[in-house]
Specification:
Helix content: 10-25%
Distance between the termini: 137 Å
Largest sheet: 6 strands, antiparallel
Number of strands: 79
Structural class: alpha+beta
Low-confidence stretches: 1-25, 209-225, 443-450, 452-458
Number of helices: 10
Length: about 1000
């Protein structure tokens, strides 16, 4: 039965499992981008990288731009056809391309502009190429034409106007190159090649001697102007006109050449229907794909465009896919020249390193392999599939054993050598020794003395373990056992167990490894690893790369190098040179997706998803590149403009926004951007995922805006910067300050002049007021008033009325004395004015014996507190006598009242008489020659104007008729004086 299984069933199983092998190749590890990632089409004709780091792809369904995270597809309604190829970037940053609808387009600021000027020349877009001279002139080759294009005027002219060579439609114009102001290109005529030189400045074309060729060229493609296609072969023409022929039938006899492109002078790629081949070393990549172009970006990544499978990103050419299967690969180990790999099926794969196509599969009881152990001493492989331990003997047979005394065999953490005939099996809670000959287990006396399990606690002789076991190692030379716990490291030696510390502190480790010299390496949780020699001398290794790795899942020592695997990546640490090479997502290797690795000779093998990755250790180079930051646009006060090449000036309080980008195709998701406004200021981190920096209300002065990017590996990129200045506000500029000083000077001069004038005017007004007071006094003491008073006294004397004469004379003398006293004061008490008025009324009452005079004073009126101008009321009372009551014969009445208005802020004086009224007075005055306003009336009116000149609250005087419907109307005078206390 065993022979039947071995001879019949196994080959069938091997055949079935062999079908699962997709292909074995040396393709570099790559990342694919397709329509599922945002690419507009999986058919890509051309790719370039612009000076700002963006990847542009011309596809079957439009042109798109990739920034490392998202694809942005550009469209335009004027495009006849969306299939775009022949991409080229000019020095001004514009992208030019050609559609399959014979349209040339120019892309500026992500907007497509169709250039109709090419329409007469684009009847055939075959072999369309572009080059730009030093003066920015664009040279376009299209089929049998060469065109000179002015990109600024967007004008086109054909370069064959001189017709020095008769070019026919079937003749071929091969790609060209530019050198300063001279363009070099070649014309293929039958089996001859003509070298032409066109000078842009002189507009002259010169030709070399006709060069006879033994080949008839049927096509041409760009490879720095020197590579041609002949049938399915390649011919390179050197500067000395010698030929080098490559017979590509030896490389890919069944493939067809699609294109050829040069990355540099020393690197050319041939793109075929079955991948791309590098001309220099014949290396072939992306087989089984129809490739159209290969480019290398600023970060060292290779990009490959294909006809049906989108774009491929190759981060590191030194990391190849040695084997790709349709199952998830898991554990890996080796024995001699064979690799053993497990997957998620019930088979163990065996591969010969020199003949990986000789794949063999061996059945397991369970699909999930817990561990593979290479027993190099006995040349066998121990496999644990959850139930069975299998031994692979040298004759290629697998024998299955079920160790009867091993409990929880599947849950073990690690298997290592204990002696030549025993293994140590480390668990979370204990350690056991496995006998090699019978694969049975027992607790060794050395360990059993110290280790035991009591209930649910992990115990040792001197106490209880604080945490579960994470890893262990037995040093058979020194008879020492190391045990790594979560929060400490224990060492068992000479029948004792103690905690091993570093700098008197507990060690928090996770993995332990050794080397043939007996050194122990403990990998720490927080930073790097410790190297402990046999004398227990400690040396620590730490770095940013080690710290980034975090928790180590597996480590192997080989040839003074330590290989470490974590969920963050894979690192090779050279203990001699301290050189560190990290393989992570920047190389296309995602640490969390690496299941296992092994070292064999000078190669490292990694199981990565369904791929077996192979890398030649000496060829692996540091693939880390400093990130570059590109300044895209400057938006000032809402208007977009280009980043200035020289210092520019912006108005005060400008809204300035700087848009930038740092395209990265090496996993720059955790990069940070820092900026500053001057060299002496500190760097400020850009918050969030924003790609712009906005500055408002910057103070006046000069600035140097700088920005840089630091990627997740700690590499700092170059600084991008530009200079600008903020203008001073207009009120701080010299012309404004000079103007303000001039205005201030003129204002001070005007103020001085106005002050002088005002003082002069005030003095004049004061003199006028004093003059008016004298006028008022004069009006009181005019000849008519004095004459009337003396006549009245004389009348008393004639009538022998001594008493009346004395009384009248006394009142008159008192009144004159008061007039003189009051004329010296600008304001007097209301009581004093009333007293003067009463004296005056007594004189008038003596003259007009038949007059009835009544004075009414509000008892609440504070007559001694209220101040009014002196001799102000009398002129209006005098007018009542002179113009109203004088012409009335009988029943003369005069009423004077003093009161406050409702607000208690205005003194209201009413003078009412029942005289002839203003209308009859006016009629009488018209009949009387030289009549008109009396001197006292004019003087009082002017005095009122002068008094109100500097007052906020004006004194108001109003006249009205008391009885407008009667013949003798009577007059009322209202004097409203704001109270001054």
């Amino acid at each position: 039965m065993k022979n039947l299984i071995r001879n019949i069933i196994y080959p069938i199983i091997l055949l079935i499992c062999g079908v699962s092998l997709l292909h074995s190749q040396t393709d570099p590890l790559h990342v694919q981008f397709s329509t599922e990632d945002g690419l507009p089409s999986n058919t890509v004709y051309d790719i370039i990288q612009d000076k700002n780091g963006y990847i542009w792809a011309g596809t079957e369904n439009g042109i798109c731009k990739f920034n490392g995270k998202t694809f942005k597809t550009l469209n335009d309604d004027h495009l006849i056809n969306n299939e775009i190829s022949y991409l080229h970037e000019l020095k001004d940053g514009s992208i030019w391309a050609v559609t399959f609808g014979n349209q040339v387009v120019r892309i500026i600021d992500d907007s497509i502009h169709v250039l109709d000027i090419f329409n007469p020349y684009l009847n055939d877009f075959k072999y369309f190429e572009m080059a730009q001279a030093n003066d920015s002139t664009l040279i376009v080759k299209n089929s049998n034409r060469i065109l000179s294009v002015n990109p600024f005027r967007v004008s086109v002219k054909e370069l064959y106007e001189t017709q020095i060579i008769n070019v026919r439609s079937r003749d071929l114009i091969v790609p060209f190159s530019t050198d300063g102001n001279e363009i070099f290109y070649q014309i293929i005529k039958g089996q001859k090649v003509i070298n032409l030189h066109y000078h842009l400045l002189t507009d002259n074309i010169k030709k070399d001697t006709f060069l006879n060729r033994e080949y008839g060229f049927d096509g041409a493609f760009f490879s720095h102007g020197k590579t041609f296609k002949w049938n399915n072969s390649l011919v390179q023409i050197s500067d000395d006109s010698t030929n080098v022929k490559y017979d590509t039938n030896d490389w890919f006899p069944n493939d067809r050449i699609l294109t050829c492109n040069g990355i540099s002078e020393h690197e050319h790629w041939i793109n075929t229907t079955d991948g791309s081949i590098r001309l220099q070393d014949k290396r072939r990549i992306m087989s089984s794909y129809g490739t159209t172009k290969v480019i290398k970006d600023m970060e060292g990544n290779y990009w490959v465009s294909t006809h049906e499978f989108g774009l491929f990103l190759i981060p590191n050419m030194e990391i190849g896919i040695w084997l790709e299967m349709d199952t998830e690969l898991d554990r890996i180990t080796h024995m001699k020249n064979h690799l053993f790999v497990s997957d998620n099926t019930q088979f163990l794969k065996s591969l010969h390193v020199e003949h990986p196509e000789e794949l063999q599969s061996y059945p397991l009881n369970y699909p999930n392999v817990k561990f593979l152990f290479s027993d190099t001493l006995n040349e066998r492989i121990i496999v644990n599939d959850g139930s069975t331990t299998m031994i692979r003997y040298e004759d290629g047979q697998f024998n299955s054993f079920l160790p009867p005394n091993i409990k929880s065999w599947y849950n073990g953490l690690r298997l290592g050598y204990f002696s030549d005939d025993s293994f140590i099996r480390v668990y979370k809670s204990n350690i056991c020794v496995v006998r090699s000959d019978t694969l049975t287990s027992d607790y060794d006396s050395l360990l059993n003395h110290h280790w035991s399990r009591v209930k649910t606690q992990y115990c040792i002789e001197f106490g209880v373990l604080t945490s579960a076991i994470k890893d262990g190692y037995y040093d058979s030379v020194n008879n020492t056992f190391w045990l790594v716990l979560a929060n400490q490291v224990l060492i068992s030696e000479s029948d004792s167990i103690r905690e091993f510390k570093y700098n008197d502190k507990s060690i928090r480790g996770n993995r332990i490894e050794s080397d043939p010299s007996g050194n122990v390496y403990i990998f720490l949780d927080d930073d790097g690893f410790l190297k402990i020699n046999r004398n227990h001398e400690i040396q620590q290794y730490k770095s940013t790369q080690l710290k980034t790795l975090g928790t180590i899942r597996k480590a192997i020592y080989r040839d003074n190098q330590v290989f470490c695997l974590s969920n963050q990546g894979f690192l090779i640490y050279n203990l001699i040179t301290n050189e560190q090479i990290t393989l992570d997502r920047t190389d296309g290797v995602f640490g969390a997706k690496i299941n296992d690795f092994d070292i064999m000779d000078d190669h490292v093998f990694l199981t990565f998803q369904n791929k077996l990755i192979k890398a030649h250790i000496p060829s692996i180079k540091d693939n880390k590149h400093p990130p570059k930051t590109f300044l895209n646009h400057l938006i000032v006060n809402g208007k977009m403009q280009a980043i200035p090449t020289s210092s520019v000036s912006f108005p005060y309080q400008s809204d300035i926004e700087v848009q930038f980008d740092a395209p990265s195709f090496k996993g720059g998701q955790h990069s940070k951007h820092l900026y500053r406004l001057n060299d002496y200021t500190t760097w400020v981190e850009v918050s969030g995922n924003t790609q712009s920096i906005r500055q408002l209300n910057l103070s006046a002065g000069s600035y140097n805006f700088s920005i840089k990017t630091i990627n997740e590996d700690g590499l700092e990129g170059p600084i991008s910067s530009f200079n600008f200045s903020i203008q001073s506000p207009f009120w701080l500029r010299w012309w404004f300050i000079l103007g303000i000083l001039s205005i201030i000077g003129l204002s001070l001069f005007a103020y001085y002049r106005n002050t002088i004038k005002r003082l002069e005017k005030e003095n004049q007004l004061e003199q006028e007021i004093r003059s008016n007071q004298l006028s008022a006094l004069q009006s009181r003491m005019n000849p008519h008033f004095i004459f009337n008073a003396l006549n009245s006294i004389q009348d008393f004397i004639i009538r022998m009325d001594k008493e009346g004469a004395n009384e009248y004379l006394g009142i008159f003398s008192n009144l004159i004395r008061i007039y003189l006293r009051h004329s010296e004061h600008p304001m007097i008490e209301l009581q004093e004015e009333i007293e003067v008025l009463e004296l005056y009324l007594k004189l008038e009452q003596l003259r007009f014996e038949d007059i009835e005079i009544e004075i009414n004073i509000d008892p609440n009126l504070r007559r001694y507190d209220i101040m009014i101008p002196p001799l102000f009321i009398q002129p209006y009372v005098e007018n009542a006598f002179k113009h109203g009551l004088l012409h009335k014969k009988h029943n003369k009445k005069l009423n004077i009242s003093f009161s406050l208005d409702k607000s208690n802020e205005i003194l209201d004086i009413r003078i009412n008489d029942n005289g002839i009224g203003r209308k009859r007075c006016l009629e009488i005055n018209k009949k009387t020659p030289h009549s008109g306003l009396s001197y006292s009336t004019k003087a009082n009116k002017r005095r009122l104007q002068l008094i109100n000149h500097n007052r906020t609250d004006k004194i108001r005087v109003e006249f009205r008729d008391l009885y407008p419907d009667e013949y003798d109307q009577g007059t009322s005078v209202s004097i409203r004086i704001p109270i001054i206390i």
